[in-house]
Amino acid sequence: QDTVERTDVAIVGAGPAGLWAMFEAGVIGLDCVTIDALDRAGGQCTELYPDKPIYDIPAVPRCSAQELVDRLLEQCAPFGFPIYLGERAETLARSGERWRLTTSAGRTIDAAAVLIAAGNGAFVPQRVALPEAERFEGNGLHYAVREAERFKGRRVLIAGGGDSALDWALALRGVAAHVTLLHRRVAYRAAPATANAVMAAHAAGQIDLVTGTLEALHESHGALRGARVKTLDGVRELEFDDLIALFGLVPDLGPLANWDVDARAGRIPVDACRYETALPGVFAIGDIALYDNKQKLILSAFHESSLALRKAFAYARPDTQRTHVHSSYDSALKQKLETG
Ligand code: FAD
Predict the structure, then answer these.
(1) Rg of the Cα trace of the chain?
(2) How far, in Å, from the CA of 262 to the mean position of ligand 1?
(3) What is the DSSP letter of 259?
(4) Among 37, 46, 109, 292, which has the minimal tally of Cβ within 10 Å of its Cβ?
(5) Which has the closest alpha carbon to 141: 56, 50, 42, 217?
(6) Phi-psi map region of 130: left, alpha, beta (phi>0 left; psi -120 to 50 alpha)
(7) From the CA of 206, how far away is ligand 1's center (Å)?
(8) What fold characterizes domain 4-124+250-339?
(9) d(CA 159, CA 213)
């Protein structure tokens, strides 16, 4: 891609802070574009605790984290703002009075203001903690499965004990020549129904189960060919063509650490009135924002989004004095939200 997309506000992160910022941008009449490194919106809510109940959202006595995200998406849908998923924000540079942001997909966004709503950073897969692992990445060692067919007829070792490891063990058993599931403990961290399905597949001879941890990876003719595994009662050698390590995701500030926003230990200092960083027109909201008495709560993320957006308005429309209208009396907003 080599086109430049122009917008009022570029939002980095589609967690609760970024999603509420999209809605608020629409309410005050700004355009926005949101990007998220993950392939779905929702940030920590969707990635870390989708089924857990949340009790401290005002006027919502109880909802699951995924339900909260679904409601936020529904709330901003009438504005039709794009959310680019699976794209990481890479660089930020001044362009006259505006900002240029580039993404890992080659997109360039030209914005009057930037809202960094990046939580703890982009989630990246937790990697195999062996020194030789890195050189096998893309050459036998995988941290995600994009298409099952890629493993057709191959001997696959899946490492991990959560839902995605078990789901892929089940999905690949009819595709791969052989599937082994390796987990460090006997009990899985997956949904009981998934764990039961894996046990049934094991009993039917479709999946081998090994309890243990990876100790060393073996190479043959430049490709990954096997591993030594420390089991509960000794050591075992496993042979395979592909290792799919699904140990979960860990947050990583990644390229944001190089932005000129004075990031400290993964957080970005802001003033607690406008949530603006050291760069004019660049704001940090939600968990990534750092100020005195900051609380990492969804409620705080909502508040910060709303106030940052109102200041961002001044950058996007420097010649317009914004007048505040309550949503209950805003007939243009009513028209937009009720008729789409
Ligand atoms: P996040 O939710 O972390 O979202 C940030 C997004 O930014 C992510 O999707 C990430 O992929 C993306 N991103 C990061 N870097 C980049 C980049 N360079 N390019 C593109 N995208 C990027 N809070 C409550 O109020 N009540 C609760 O009951 C509650 N329970 C919780 C339970 C658990 C187990 C956890 C872990 C947290 C809980 N929280 C709760 C905290 C709450 O989830 C966070 O405060 C909230 O998710 C912060 O929202 P956010 O949008 O700032 O960040």
Answers:
(1) 23
(2) 21
(3) S
(4) 292
(5) 217
(6) beta
(7) 38
(8) FAD/NAD(P)-binding domain (3.50.50)
(9) 9
The residue to mutate among 45, 47, 62, 92, having the most atoms of ligand 1 within 8 angstroms of its beta carbon, is: 45
Sign of the alpha-carbon dihedral angle for 266, 268, 272, 274: negative
Write the pLDDT tens digit of every residue in 316-332: 999 999 989 999 999 99
> pLDDT (tens digit, 9 = 90+) per residue, 168-209?
999 999 899 999 999 999 999 999 999 999 999 999 999 999
127-247 belongs to which homologous superfamily?
FAD/NAD(P)-binding domain (3.50.50.60)
Query: Which residues make up the CATH 3.50.50.60 domain(s) of the chain?
Result: 4-124+250-339, 127-247
List residues near ligand 1 (CB under 6 A): 12-18, 35-38, 43-45, 48-49, 54, 56, 88-89, 117-123, 254-256, 286-287, 296-299, 301
Highest mean pLDDT (candidates 217-221, 239-243, 335-339) = 239-243
pTM: 0.79
Cα–ligand 1 centroid distance for 240 (angstroms): 37
ipTM of predicted assembly, 2 dp: 0.99
CB 74 within 8 A of CB 47: no
Eight-state DSSP code of residue 90: E
Lowest-pLDDT choice from 6-15, 124-133, 165-174, 247-256: 247-256
Give distance in angstroms: CA of 119 to centre of ligand 1.
5
Tens-place pLDDT, residues 52-76: 999 999 999 999 999 999 999 999 9
As annotated, the binding site for FAD includes 36, 44, 49, 89, 123, 287, 328
Dist. CA 251 → ligand 1 center (Å): 10
Query: Which CA distances in Å does 133 have to 118, 219, 272?
Result: 28, 11, 43
